[in-house]
Amino acid sequence: MLRRGRFRRIGLFEVCNTLLMLAVCFLTLYPMWFVFINSFNPAEKAILGTVNWFPESFSWASYSVVFQDKGLMNGFYITTLRTLIGTTAHVLFTAIVAYGISKTNLIGRKLYLKIALITMLFSGGLIPSFILMTKLGLYDNFLVFIIPAMYTFFNMVIFMSFYRTIPDSLEESAKVDGASDYGVLFRIVLPNSMAVIATISLFSAVYHWNDYYQGVIYIRSQDIIPLQTMLFKIVAENSMTFMQQQAMAQFGARLPGNSIKFASMMVATLPILLFYPFIQRYLVKGVMIGAIKG
Amino acid sequence: MFQHRAGLKSFFRQWQLQSMVIPGIIWMIIFCYIPMLWLIIGFMDFSIAKPMLQSPFVGLKHFQDFASDERFWRSIRNTLGMSTIKLVLGFPIPIFFALMLNEIRSIRFKRTVQTISYLPHFIAWTIFGGIMLNWLGEGGVINQLMMAVGFQDREILFNSDPKYFWWITYFSDILKETGWSAIIYIAAIAGIDPALYEAAELDGANRWQRMWHITIQCIRPTIAILFILAVAGMLGSNFEQIFILKNNMNMRMAESLDLYIYNMGLVSGRYSFSTAVLFARSIVALGLLFLANYASKKLTGDSIF
Hints:
The structure holds two protein chains of two kinds. By secondary structure, chain A is an all-alpha fold. Chain A has one domain (61-293): MetI-like (MetI-like fold), CATH 1.10.3720.10. In chain A, 71% of the residues lie in helices and 0% in strands. In chain B, 70% of the residues lie in helices and 0% in strands. In chain B, α11 runs antiparallel to α15 (271-300).
Protein backbone atom coordinates (compact mmCIF):
# COMPACT_ATOMS: atom_id res chain seq x y z
CA MET A 1 0.00 0.00 0.00
CA LEU A 2 2.71 2.36 0.98
CA ARG A 3 4.67 1.63 -2.13
CA ARG A 4 1.83 2.53 -4.45
CA GLY A 5 2.50 6.23 -4.06
CA ARG A 6 6.03 5.80 -5.33
CA PHE A 7 5.01 3.54 -8.12
CA ARG A 8 5.51 5.29 -11.43
CA ARG A 9 3.65 4.56 -14.59
CA ILE A 10 5.54 2.09 -16.71
CA GLY A 11 5.62 3.75 -20.06
CA LEU A 12 6.36 2.52 -23.56
CA PHE A 13 9.92 3.70 -23.16
CA GLU A 14 10.58 1.48 -20.15
CA VAL A 15 9.21 -1.54 -21.94
CA CYS A 16 11.30 -0.91 -25.07
CA ASN A 17 14.39 -0.15 -23.07
CA THR A 18 14.07 -3.29 -20.99
CA LEU A 19 13.60 -5.32 -24.16
CA LEU A 20 16.67 -3.65 -25.63
CA MET A 21 18.74 -4.61 -22.60
CA LEU A 22 17.46 -8.17 -22.74
CA ALA A 23 18.44 -8.26 -26.40
CA VAL A 24 21.94 -7.09 -25.47
CA CYS A 25 22.20 -9.87 -22.88
CA PHE A 26 21.00 -12.41 -25.41
CA LEU A 27 23.48 -11.28 -28.06
CA THR A 28 26.27 -11.37 -25.51
CA LEU A 29 25.55 -14.78 -24.07
CA TYR A 30 24.36 -16.55 -27.19
CA PRO A 31 27.80 -17.03 -28.82
CA MET A 32 29.09 -18.92 -25.77
CA TRP A 33 25.86 -20.86 -25.42
CA PHE A 34 26.19 -21.83 -29.07
CA VAL A 35 29.67 -23.24 -28.47
CA PHE A 36 28.49 -25.01 -25.35
CA ILE A 37 25.54 -26.86 -26.90
CA ASN A 38 27.41 -27.76 -30.06
CA SER A 39 30.32 -29.22 -28.18
CA PHE A 40 27.95 -31.97 -27.01
CA ASN A 41 26.68 -32.74 -30.48
CA PRO A 42 27.40 -36.38 -31.20
CA ALA A 43 29.42 -37.33 -34.23
CA GLU A 44 26.47 -38.47 -36.31
CA LYS A 45 24.68 -35.18 -35.82
CA ALA A 46 27.66 -32.92 -36.36
CA ILE A 47 27.72 -33.73 -40.06
CA LEU A 48 24.17 -32.41 -40.38
CA GLY A 49 25.24 -29.00 -39.20
CA THR A 50 24.97 -27.16 -35.93
CA VAL A 51 22.11 -26.87 -33.49
CA ASN A 52 20.97 -23.42 -32.54
CA TRP A 53 19.06 -23.61 -29.28
CA PHE A 54 19.35 -26.86 -27.33
CA PRO A 55 21.46 -29.95 -27.75
CA GLU A 56 19.44 -32.57 -29.60
CA SER A 57 21.31 -35.38 -28.01
CA PHE A 58 24.07 -35.45 -25.53
CA SER A 59 27.52 -36.90 -25.99
CA TRP A 60 30.89 -36.51 -24.31
CA ALA A 61 32.61 -38.01 -27.34
CA SER A 62 34.23 -34.83 -28.57
CA TYR A 63 35.48 -33.98 -25.08
CA SER A 64 37.09 -37.36 -24.74
CA VAL A 65 38.87 -36.75 -28.06
CA VAL A 66 40.04 -33.36 -26.83
CA PHE A 67 41.27 -34.69 -23.50
CA GLN A 68 43.08 -37.57 -25.16
CA ASP A 69 44.77 -35.27 -27.66
CA LYS A 70 48.35 -34.98 -26.47
CA GLY A 71 48.94 -31.86 -28.54
CA LEU A 72 45.98 -29.94 -27.15
CA MET A 73 46.67 -31.06 -23.61
CA ASN A 74 50.27 -29.96 -23.93
CA GLY A 75 49.00 -26.63 -25.24
CA PHE A 76 46.77 -26.38 -22.19
CA TYR A 77 49.77 -27.07 -19.97
CA ILE A 78 51.95 -24.50 -21.76
CA THR A 79 49.21 -21.87 -21.52
CA THR A 80 48.70 -22.56 -17.83
CA LEU A 81 52.42 -22.38 -17.19
CA ARG A 82 52.71 -19.22 -19.23
CA THR A 83 49.80 -17.63 -17.40
CA LEU A 84 51.21 -18.46 -13.96
CA ILE A 85 54.81 -17.48 -14.64
CA GLY A 86 53.98 -14.56 -16.90
CA THR A 87 51.54 -13.03 -14.44
CA THR A 88 53.85 -13.45 -11.46
CA ALA A 89 56.79 -11.99 -13.35
CA HIS A 90 54.75 -9.06 -14.62
CA VAL A 91 53.27 -8.15 -11.27
CA LEU A 92 56.50 -8.51 -9.31
CA PHE A 93 58.68 -6.67 -11.79
CA THR A 94 56.25 -3.83 -12.41
CA ALA A 95 55.47 -3.46 -8.71
CA ILE A 96 59.15 -3.22 -7.76
CA VAL A 97 60.07 -0.75 -10.50
CA ALA A 98 57.02 1.33 -9.65
CA TYR A 99 57.99 1.42 -5.97
CA GLY A 100 61.51 2.61 -6.69
CA ILE A 101 60.35 5.24 -9.12
CA SER A 102 57.61 6.48 -6.79
CA LYS A 103 60.21 7.59 -4.22
CA THR A 104 60.76 11.33 -4.64
CA ASN A 105 64.27 11.20 -3.16
CA LEU A 106 65.38 8.79 -5.89
CA ILE A 107 68.40 10.22 -7.67
CA GLY A 108 67.75 10.52 -11.39
CA ARG A 109 63.99 10.17 -10.93
CA LYS A 110 63.12 12.80 -13.53
CA LEU A 111 65.28 11.11 -16.14
CA TYR A 112 63.83 7.69 -15.33
CA LEU A 113 60.29 9.01 -15.64
CA LYS A 114 61.10 10.59 -19.00
CA ILE A 115 62.60 7.35 -20.27
CA ALA A 116 59.46 5.53 -19.14
CA LEU A 117 57.05 8.06 -20.63
CA ILE A 118 58.60 7.95 -24.09
CA THR A 119 58.03 4.19 -24.26
CA MET A 120 54.32 4.87 -24.11
CA LEU A 121 54.33 7.36 -26.96
CA PHE A 122 56.59 5.63 -29.49
CA SER A 123 57.36 2.05 -30.31
CA GLY A 124 59.39 0.16 -32.86
CA GLY A 125 56.59 -2.06 -34.03
CA LEU A 126 56.36 -5.57 -35.36
CA ILE A 127 59.45 -5.99 -37.53
CA PRO A 128 62.09 -4.42 -35.26
CA SER A 129 60.64 -6.33 -32.31
CA PHE A 130 60.80 -9.55 -34.28
CA ILE A 131 64.44 -8.93 -35.18
CA LEU A 132 65.18 -8.11 -31.55
CA MET A 133 63.63 -11.35 -30.30
CA THR A 134 65.61 -13.30 -32.88
CA LYS A 135 68.87 -11.62 -31.86
CA LEU A 136 68.13 -12.19 -28.17
CA GLY A 137 67.55 -15.87 -28.78
CA LEU A 138 63.93 -15.58 -27.73
CA TYR A 139 62.62 -16.86 -31.05
CA ASP A 140 61.02 -20.26 -30.51
CA ASN A 141 61.75 -19.96 -26.80
CA PHE A 142 59.18 -20.19 -24.01
CA LEU A 143 60.63 -17.05 -22.43
CA VAL A 144 59.32 -14.96 -25.33
CA PHE A 145 55.95 -15.12 -23.57
CA ILE A 146 57.38 -13.97 -20.26
CA ILE A 147 60.16 -11.43 -20.60
CA PRO A 148 58.73 -9.01 -23.17
CA ALA A 149 55.46 -8.96 -21.18
CA MET A 150 57.07 -8.20 -17.82
CA TYR A 151 56.37 -4.51 -17.79
CA THR A 152 53.88 -1.97 -19.05
CA PHE A 153 53.99 1.74 -18.44
CA PHE A 154 50.26 1.79 -17.82
CA ASN A 155 50.38 -0.74 -14.99
CA MET A 156 53.40 0.96 -13.46
CA VAL A 157 51.39 4.18 -13.25
CA ILE A 158 48.51 2.30 -11.62
CA PHE A 159 50.90 0.89 -9.01
CA MET A 160 52.47 4.29 -8.38
CA SER A 161 49.16 5.99 -7.83
CA PHE A 162 48.09 3.23 -5.47
CA TYR A 163 51.30 3.50 -3.43
CA ARG A 164 50.51 7.16 -2.88
CA THR A 165 47.37 6.21 -0.96
CA ILE A 166 49.37 4.18 1.59
CA PRO A 167 50.06 6.40 4.61
CA ASP A 168 53.70 7.47 4.87
CA SER A 169 53.67 6.83 8.62
CA LEU A 170 53.50 3.07 8.00
CA GLU A 171 56.69 3.15 5.99
CA GLU A 172 58.37 5.61 8.35
CA SER A 173 57.83 3.44 11.41
CA ALA A 174 59.20 0.38 9.60
CA LYS A 175 62.23 2.43 8.59
CA VAL A 176 62.75 3.49 12.20
CA ASP A 177 62.70 -0.18 13.17
CA GLY A 178 65.60 -0.67 10.80
CA ALA A 179 63.86 -2.15 7.76
CA SER A 180 65.63 -1.79 4.41
CA ASP A 181 63.87 -0.47 1.28
CA TYR A 182 63.23 -4.03 0.17
CA GLY A 183 61.95 -4.86 3.65
CA VAL A 184 59.51 -1.96 3.56
CA LEU A 185 58.34 -2.91 0.07
CA PHE A 186 57.77 -6.59 0.77
CA ARG A 187 56.57 -6.40 4.35
CA ILE A 188 54.59 -3.15 4.41
CA VAL A 189 53.78 -1.79 0.97
CA LEU A 190 52.90 -4.89 -1.05
CA PRO A 191 50.71 -6.50 1.64
CA ASN A 192 48.79 -3.23 1.73
CA SER A 193 48.41 -3.17 -2.05
CA MET A 194 46.49 -6.41 -2.48
CA ALA A 195 43.57 -4.72 -4.24
CA VAL A 196 45.73 -3.33 -7.01
CA ILE A 197 47.82 -6.49 -7.21
CA ALA A 198 44.63 -8.51 -7.73
CA THR A 199 43.43 -6.24 -10.50
CA ILE A 200 46.70 -6.16 -12.39
CA SER A 201 47.23 -9.91 -11.96
CA LEU A 202 43.83 -10.58 -13.46
CA PHE A 203 44.43 -8.38 -16.48
CA SER A 204 47.81 -9.94 -17.00
CA ALA A 205 46.41 -13.46 -16.59
CA VAL A 206 43.59 -12.83 -19.06
CA TYR A 207 46.12 -11.48 -21.55
CA HIS A 208 48.39 -14.49 -21.18
CA TRP A 209 45.51 -16.92 -21.36
CA ASN A 210 43.89 -15.40 -24.44
CA ASP A 211 46.87 -14.36 -26.53
CA TYR A 212 47.46 -16.44 -29.65
CA TYR A 213 49.41 -13.96 -31.71
CA GLN A 214 52.80 -14.26 -29.94
CA GLY A 215 52.63 -17.99 -30.47
CA VAL A 216 51.89 -17.57 -34.18
CA ILE A 217 54.80 -15.20 -34.69
CA TYR A 218 57.51 -16.55 -32.44
CA ILE A 219 56.92 -20.24 -31.84
CA ARG A 220 57.73 -23.06 -34.23
CA SER A 221 58.30 -26.07 -31.92
CA GLN A 222 55.17 -28.10 -31.30
CA ASP A 223 55.97 -28.67 -27.65
CA ILE A 224 55.76 -25.02 -26.59
CA ILE A 225 52.78 -23.89 -28.65
CA PRO A 226 50.11 -22.36 -26.40
CA LEU A 227 46.54 -23.61 -26.50
CA GLN A 228 45.15 -20.50 -28.17
CA THR A 229 47.68 -20.69 -30.98
CA MET A 230 46.65 -24.30 -31.61
CA LEU A 231 43.06 -23.26 -31.53
CA PHE A 232 43.85 -20.56 -34.06
CA LYS A 233 45.25 -23.19 -36.37
CA ILE A 234 42.27 -25.47 -35.86
CA VAL A 235 39.74 -22.70 -36.35
CA ALA A 236 41.28 -20.51 -39.04
CA GLU A 237 43.43 -22.93 -40.96
CA ASN A 238 41.32 -26.02 -40.36
CA SER A 239 44.39 -27.98 -39.39
CA MET A 240 43.90 -31.08 -37.34
CA THR A 241 46.07 -32.31 -34.55
CA PHE A 242 47.31 -35.85 -34.59
CA MET A 243 44.67 -37.23 -32.24
CA GLN A 244 41.92 -35.55 -34.15
CA GLN A 245 43.06 -37.29 -37.29
CA GLN A 246 42.97 -40.52 -35.34
CA ALA A 247 39.46 -39.77 -34.22
CA MET A 248 38.53 -38.98 -37.78
CA ALA A 249 39.80 -42.33 -38.93
CA GLN A 250 37.90 -43.98 -36.10
CA PHE A 251 34.60 -42.28 -36.88
CA GLY A 252 35.08 -42.60 -40.59
CA ALA A 253 34.02 -39.91 -43.01
CA ARG A 254 31.35 -38.69 -40.59
CA LEU A 255 33.99 -36.73 -38.83
CA PRO A 256 32.97 -35.01 -35.65
CA GLY A 257 35.18 -32.12 -36.74
CA ASN A 258 32.75 -29.41 -35.72
CA SER A 259 31.98 -30.86 -32.31
CA ILE A 260 35.67 -31.34 -31.59
CA LYS A 261 36.32 -27.77 -32.61
CA PHE A 262 33.63 -26.54 -30.24
CA ALA A 263 34.78 -28.81 -27.45
CA SER A 264 38.34 -27.46 -27.77
CA MET A 265 36.97 -23.92 -27.71
CA MET A 266 34.98 -24.75 -24.62
CA VAL A 267 38.02 -26.19 -22.85
CA ALA A 268 40.05 -23.11 -23.76
CA THR A 269 37.40 -20.72 -22.42
CA LEU A 270 36.29 -22.66 -19.40
CA PRO A 271 38.78 -21.11 -16.95
CA ILE A 272 37.68 -17.64 -18.01
CA LEU A 273 33.97 -18.51 -17.77
CA LEU A 274 34.38 -20.15 -14.38
CA PHE A 275 36.31 -17.29 -12.82
CA TYR A 276 34.45 -14.52 -14.58
CA PRO A 277 31.63 -14.03 -12.06
CA PHE A 278 34.15 -13.63 -9.25
CA ILE A 279 36.76 -11.52 -10.98
CA GLN A 280 34.72 -9.19 -13.13
CA ARG A 281 34.44 -6.46 -10.50
CA TYR A 282 38.22 -6.33 -10.12
CA LEU A 283 38.55 -6.01 -13.86
CA VAL A 284 36.08 -3.15 -13.94
CA LYS A 285 37.88 -1.48 -11.05
CA GLY A 286 41.10 -1.67 -13.05
CA VAL A 287 39.53 0.15 -15.96
CA MET A 288 38.23 2.83 -13.62
CA ILE A 289 41.68 3.47 -12.17
CA GLY A 290 43.05 3.58 -15.69
CA ALA A 291 40.35 5.94 -16.85
CA ILE A 292 41.01 8.40 -14.05
CA LYS A 293 44.72 8.35 -14.85
CA GLY A 294 44.13 8.73 -18.58
CA MET B 1 65.51 18.15 -2.36
CA PHE B 2 69.14 17.29 -2.31
CA GLN B 3 69.27 16.19 -5.90
CA HIS B 4 71.58 18.98 -6.97
CA ARG B 5 74.21 18.10 -4.44
CA ALA B 6 73.75 14.43 -4.97
CA GLY B 7 76.96 12.80 -6.01
CA LEU B 8 78.04 9.25 -6.51
CA LYS B 9 78.18 8.78 -2.77
CA SER B 10 74.50 9.44 -2.16
CA PHE B 11 73.69 7.45 -5.27
CA PHE B 12 75.36 4.42 -3.74
CA ARG B 13 73.77 5.11 -0.39
CA GLN B 14 70.38 4.43 -1.99
CA TRP B 15 71.59 1.39 -3.92
CA GLN B 16 68.50 -0.53 -2.84
CA LEU B 17 66.10 1.90 -4.48
CA GLN B 18 68.34 2.18 -7.52
CA SER B 19 68.50 -1.58 -7.85
CA MET B 20 64.72 -1.63 -8.01
CA VAL B 21 64.50 0.91 -10.81
CA ILE B 22 67.55 0.22 -12.95
CA PRO B 23 66.44 -3.27 -14.13
CA GLY B 24 63.24 -1.60 -15.31
CA ILE B 25 65.18 1.03 -17.22
CA ILE B 26 67.37 -1.66 -18.79
CA TRP B 27 64.23 -3.56 -19.78
CA MET B 28 62.83 -0.42 -21.43
CA ILE B 29 66.07 0.21 -23.28
CA ILE B 30 66.16 -3.33 -24.62
CA PHE B 31 62.51 -3.85 -25.45
CA CYS B 32 61.42 -0.33 -26.38
CA TYR B 33 64.38 1.81 -27.36
CA ILE B 34 66.37 -0.72 -29.36
CA PRO B 35 63.35 -1.55 -31.57
CA MET B 36 62.81 2.19 -32.02
CA LEU B 37 66.43 2.57 -33.11
CA TRP B 38 66.09 -0.35 -35.44
CA LEU B 39 63.43 1.47 -37.41
CA ILE B 40 66.56 2.67 -39.18
CA ILE B 41 66.67 -0.56 -41.16
CA GLY B 42 63.85 0.96 -43.21
CA PHE B 43 66.63 3.00 -44.81
CA MET B 44 68.95 0.01 -45.27
CA ASP B 45 69.07 -3.27 -47.12
CA PHE B 46 68.98 -5.29 -43.96
CA SER B 47 69.64 -8.98 -43.84
CA ILE B 48 68.99 -10.90 -40.66
CA ALA B 49 72.13 -13.02 -41.06
CA LYS B 50 74.49 -10.03 -40.97
CA PRO B 51 75.39 -7.80 -38.03
CA MET B 52 73.30 -4.61 -37.88
CA LEU B 53 75.73 -2.06 -39.22
CA GLN B 54 77.10 -4.05 -42.12
CA SER B 55 73.95 -3.64 -44.16
CA PRO B 56 74.24 -0.91 -46.80
CA PHE B 57 72.21 2.31 -46.57
CA VAL B 58 69.86 2.73 -49.48
CA GLY B 59 68.15 5.99 -48.54
CA LEU B 60 64.49 6.18 -49.46
CA LYS B 61 64.48 3.22 -51.82
CA HIS B 62 62.01 1.19 -49.80
CA PHE B 63 59.77 4.19 -49.33
CA GLN B 64 59.61 4.66 -53.08
CA ASP B 65 58.98 0.95 -53.48
CA PHE B 66 55.99 0.77 -51.24
CA ALA B 67 54.59 4.06 -52.50
CA SER B 68 54.46 2.51 -55.97
CA ASP B 69 53.08 -0.81 -54.72
CA GLU B 70 49.42 -1.18 -55.57
CA ARG B 71 48.97 -3.68 -52.76
CA PHE B 72 50.17 -1.05 -50.28
CA TRP B 73 47.51 1.42 -51.38
CA ARG B 74 44.95 -1.35 -51.30
CA SER B 75 45.91 -2.01 -47.67
CA ILE B 76 45.56 1.71 -46.90
CA ARG B 77 42.12 1.68 -48.47
CA ASN B 78 41.12 -1.38 -46.45
CA THR B 79 42.44 0.05 -43.20
CA LEU B 80 40.71 3.37 -43.70
CA GLY B 81 37.54 1.66 -44.86
CA MET B 82 37.31 -0.55 -41.80
CA SER B 83 38.35 2.23 -39.42
CA THR B 84 35.85 4.66 -40.92
CA ILE B 85 32.98 2.20 -40.57
CA LYS B 86 34.01 1.48 -36.99
CA LEU B 87 34.39 5.17 -36.21
CA VAL B 88 31.22 6.51 -37.83
CA LEU B 89 28.84 3.63 -37.15
CA GLY B 90 30.61 2.00 -34.23
CA PHE B 91 31.80 4.82 -32.00
CA PRO B 92 28.32 6.02 -30.94
CA ILE B 93 27.06 2.55 -30.02
CA PRO B 94 28.71 2.20 -26.57
CA ILE B 95 27.57 5.75 -25.76
CA PHE B 96 24.03 4.85 -26.74
CA PHE B 97 24.22 1.65 -24.70
CA ALA B 98 25.50 3.54 -21.65
CA LEU B 99 22.71 6.12 -21.97
CA MET B 100 20.02 3.47 -22.27
CA LEU B 101 21.45 1.41 -19.43
CA ASN B 102 21.39 4.52 -17.29
CA GLU B 103 17.63 4.79 -17.82
CA ILE B 104 17.03 1.37 -16.28
CA ARG B 105 15.53 1.93 -12.84
CA SER B 106 16.14 -1.42 -11.19
CA ILE B 107 19.69 -1.36 -9.83
CA ARG B 108 19.93 -5.14 -9.84
CA PHE B 109 18.81 -5.52 -13.41
CA LYS B 110 21.17 -2.74 -14.46
CA ARG B 111 24.13 -4.37 -12.77
CA THR B 112 23.31 -7.78 -14.20
CA VAL B 113 23.04 -6.45 -17.74
CA GLN B 114 26.31 -4.61 -17.32
CA THR B 115 28.15 -7.65 -15.98
CA ILE B 116 26.88 -9.82 -18.79
CA SER B 117 27.73 -7.23 -21.41
CA TYR B 118 31.46 -7.28 -20.58
CA LEU B 119 31.80 -11.03 -20.96
CA PRO B 120 32.69 -11.26 -24.67
CA HIS B 121 35.60 -8.87 -24.14
CA PHE B 122 37.35 -11.57 -22.13
CA ILE B 123 36.74 -14.31 -24.66
CA ALA B 124 39.78 -14.83 -26.87
CA TRP B 125 39.54 -13.85 -30.52
CA THR B 126 40.40 -17.42 -31.46
CA ILE B 127 37.13 -18.51 -29.92
CA PHE B 128 35.02 -15.54 -30.88
CA GLY B 129 36.46 -15.60 -34.40
CA GLY B 130 35.80 -19.33 -34.58
CA ILE B 131 32.16 -18.74 -33.71
CA MET B 132 31.89 -16.01 -36.34
CA LEU B 133 33.43 -18.23 -39.01
CA ASN B 134 30.95 -20.95 -38.17
CA TRP B 135 27.98 -18.57 -38.21
CA LEU B 136 28.99 -17.04 -41.51
CA GLY B 137 29.61 -20.33 -43.25
CA GLU B 138 27.41 -22.84 -45.02
CA GLY B 139 24.35 -23.70 -42.95
CA GLY B 140 25.49 -21.19 -40.35
CA VAL B 141 23.30 -19.13 -38.08
CA ILE B 142 23.47 -16.03 -40.29
CA ASN B 143 22.41 -17.88 -43.41
CA GLN B 144 19.54 -19.57 -41.56
CA LEU B 145 18.41 -16.24 -40.17
CA MET B 146 18.60 -14.36 -43.47
CA MET B 147 16.71 -17.11 -45.27
CA ALA B 148 14.06 -17.33 -42.58
CA VAL B 149 13.48 -13.59 -42.73
CA GLY B 150 13.48 -13.72 -46.51
CA PHE B 151 16.44 -11.44 -47.20
CA GLN B 152 18.13 -14.06 -49.32
CA ASP B 153 16.87 -17.15 -51.05
CA ARG B 154 20.04 -19.22 -51.06
CA GLU B 155 23.09 -19.67 -48.90
CA ILE B 156 25.91 -17.17 -49.13
CA LEU B 157 29.43 -17.97 -48.02
CA PHE B 158 29.90 -14.61 -46.39
CA ASN B 159 33.48 -15.09 -45.39
CA SER B 160 34.59 -16.18 -48.84
CA ASP B 161 33.16 -13.12 -50.51
CA PRO B 162 35.47 -10.10 -50.05
CA LYS B 163 32.65 -7.58 -50.24
CA TYR B 164 31.29 -8.59 -46.84
CA PHE B 165 34.59 -8.52 -44.96
CA TRP B 166 34.51 -4.92 -43.68
CA TRP B 167 31.01 -5.44 -42.37
CA ILE B 168 31.97 -8.70 -40.71
CA THR B 169 34.76 -6.94 -38.82
CA TYR B 170 32.35 -4.16 -37.88
CA PHE B 171 29.57 -6.38 -36.56
CA SER B 172 31.82 -8.84 -34.79
CA ASP B 173 33.63 -5.95 -33.13
CA ILE B 174 30.36 -4.47 -31.89
CA LEU B 175 29.19 -7.83 -30.62
CA LYS B 176 32.42 -8.36 -28.69
CA GLU B 177 33.35 -4.92 -27.40
CA THR B 178 30.23 -2.77 -26.91
CA GLY B 179 29.74 -3.61 -23.24
CA TRP B 180 33.38 -3.14 -22.39
CA SER B 181 33.74 0.17 -24.24
CA ALA B 182 30.66 1.44 -22.47
CA ILE B 183 32.25 1.11 -18.99
CA ILE B 184 34.06 4.38 -19.24
CA TYR B 185 30.87 6.22 -20.25
CA ILE B 186 28.88 4.49 -17.53
CA ALA B 187 31.46 5.64 -14.99
CA ALA B 188 31.33 9.17 -16.35
CA ILE B 189 27.53 9.19 -16.19
CA ALA B 190 27.60 7.88 -12.61
CA GLY B 191 29.70 10.91 -11.69
CA ILE B 192 27.08 13.45 -12.77
CA ASP B 193 25.50 15.43 -9.94
CA PRO B 194 21.88 14.18 -9.50
CA ALA B 195 20.84 17.73 -8.56
CA LEU B 196 21.25 18.66 -12.23
CA TYR B 197 18.56 16.15 -13.21
CA GLU B 198 16.22 17.26 -10.45
CA ALA B 199 16.57 20.87 -11.48
CA ALA B 200 15.91 19.96 -15.10
CA GLU B 201 12.88 17.92 -14.14
CA LEU B 202 11.45 20.90 -12.20
CA ASP B 203 11.97 23.02 -15.30
CA GLY B 204 9.87 20.53 -17.21
CA ALA B 205 12.59 18.89 -19.27
CA ASN B 206 11.50 15.54 -20.67
CA ARG B 207 13.61 12.40 -20.75
CA TRP B 208 15.25 13.11 -24.12
CA GLN B 209 16.00 16.71 -23.21
CA ARG B 210 17.63 15.60 -19.97
CA MET B 211 19.67 13.04 -21.84
CA TRP B 212 20.82 15.55 -24.42
CA HIS B 213 21.31 18.65 -22.28
CA ILE B 214 22.67 17.04 -19.13
CA THR B 215 24.04 13.56 -19.68
CA ILE B 216 25.66 14.13 -23.06
CA GLN B 217 26.96 17.55 -22.07
CA CYS B 218 28.50 16.19 -18.88
CA ILE B 219 30.27 13.27 -20.50
CA ARG B 220 31.41 15.32 -23.49
CA PRO B 221 35.07 15.52 -22.37
CA THR B 222 35.17 11.72 -22.10
CA ILE B 223 33.65 11.37 -25.54
CA ALA B 224 36.13 13.88 -26.95
CA ILE B 225 39.17 12.06 -25.53
CA LEU B 226 38.03 8.69 -26.79
CA PHE B 227 37.21 10.17 -30.17
CA ILE B 228 40.66 11.71 -30.48
CA LEU B 229 42.26 8.39 -29.62
CA ALA B 230 40.01 6.59 -32.11
CA VAL B 231 40.96 8.98 -34.91
CA ALA B 232 44.62 8.74 -34.01
CA GLY B 233 44.33 4.96 -34.22
CA MET B 234 42.71 4.94 -37.65
CA LEU B 235 45.80 3.57 -39.36
CA GLY B 236 45.82 0.66 -36.97
CA SER B 237 43.45 -2.26 -37.06
CA ASN B 238 42.43 -4.99 -34.72
CA PHE B 239 45.11 -7.42 -35.83
CA GLU B 240 43.92 -10.34 -33.71
CA GLN B 241 40.46 -10.01 -35.24
CA ILE B 242 41.51 -9.63 -38.86
CA PHE B 243 44.14 -12.33 -38.59
CA ILE B 244 41.56 -14.96 -37.71
CA LEU B 245 38.80 -13.81 -40.05
CA LYS B 246 40.97 -13.38 -43.15
CA ASN B 247 41.49 -16.11 -45.72
CA ASN B 248 42.85 -16.36 -49.24
CA MET B 249 39.50 -15.57 -50.77
CA ASN B 250 38.75 -12.35 -48.87
CA MET B 251 42.34 -11.09 -48.68
CA ARG B 252 41.59 -8.40 -51.27
CA MET B 253 39.44 -6.56 -48.73
CA ALA B 254 40.94 -7.98 -45.55
CA GLU B 255 44.57 -7.01 -45.87
CA SER B 256 44.90 -4.02 -43.59
CA LEU B 257 48.10 -2.08 -43.16
CA ASP B 258 49.04 -4.21 -40.15
CA LEU B 259 48.46 -7.38 -42.08
CA TYR B 260 50.37 -5.99 -45.06
CA ILE B 261 53.35 -5.26 -42.82
CA TYR B 262 53.10 -8.75 -41.35
CA ASN B 263 52.79 -10.41 -44.76
CA MET B 264 55.60 -8.42 -46.32
CA GLY B 265 57.88 -8.63 -43.32
CA LEU B 266 57.42 -11.96 -41.64
CA VAL B 267 55.91 -14.04 -44.44
CA SER B 268 57.97 -12.75 -47.36
CA GLY B 269 60.98 -11.81 -45.26
CA ARG B 270 61.28 -8.26 -46.62
CA TYR B 271 62.31 -6.76 -43.29
CA SER B 272 63.63 -3.42 -44.53
CA PHE B 273 60.68 -2.87 -46.82
CA SER B 274 58.05 -3.44 -44.15
CA THR B 275 60.02 -1.45 -41.59
CA ALA B 276 59.88 1.47 -44.01
CA VAL B 277 56.10 1.08 -44.06
CA LEU B 278 56.05 0.93 -40.25
CA PHE B 279 58.16 4.06 -40.05
CA ALA B 280 55.93 6.00 -42.41
CA ARG B 281 52.87 4.83 -40.56
CA SER B 282 54.11 6.01 -37.16
CA ILE B 283 54.82 9.47 -38.58
CA VAL B 284 51.35 9.73 -40.10
CA ALA B 285 49.72 8.35 -36.93
CA LEU B 286 51.49 10.99 -34.85
CA GLY B 287 50.26 13.64 -37.26
CA LEU B 288 46.71 12.28 -37.02
CA LEU B 289 46.86 12.46 -33.23
CA PHE B 290 47.81 16.14 -33.31
CA LEU B 291 45.25 16.88 -36.00
CA ALA B 292 42.41 15.19 -34.11
CA ASN B 293 43.46 16.87 -30.90
CA TYR B 294 43.54 20.26 -32.60
CA ALA B 295 40.15 19.74 -34.26
CA SER B 296 38.57 18.65 -30.99
CA LYS B 297 40.01 21.62 -29.15
CA LYS B 298 38.60 24.01 -31.78
CA LEU B 299 35.19 22.35 -31.99
CA THR B 300 34.39 21.34 -28.45
CA GLY B 301 37.10 22.87 -26.28
CA ASP B 302 38.12 19.42 -25.00
CA SER B 303 41.49 17.94 -25.82
CA ILE B 304 44.17 15.57 -24.53
CA PHE B 305 47.06 18.03 -24.58
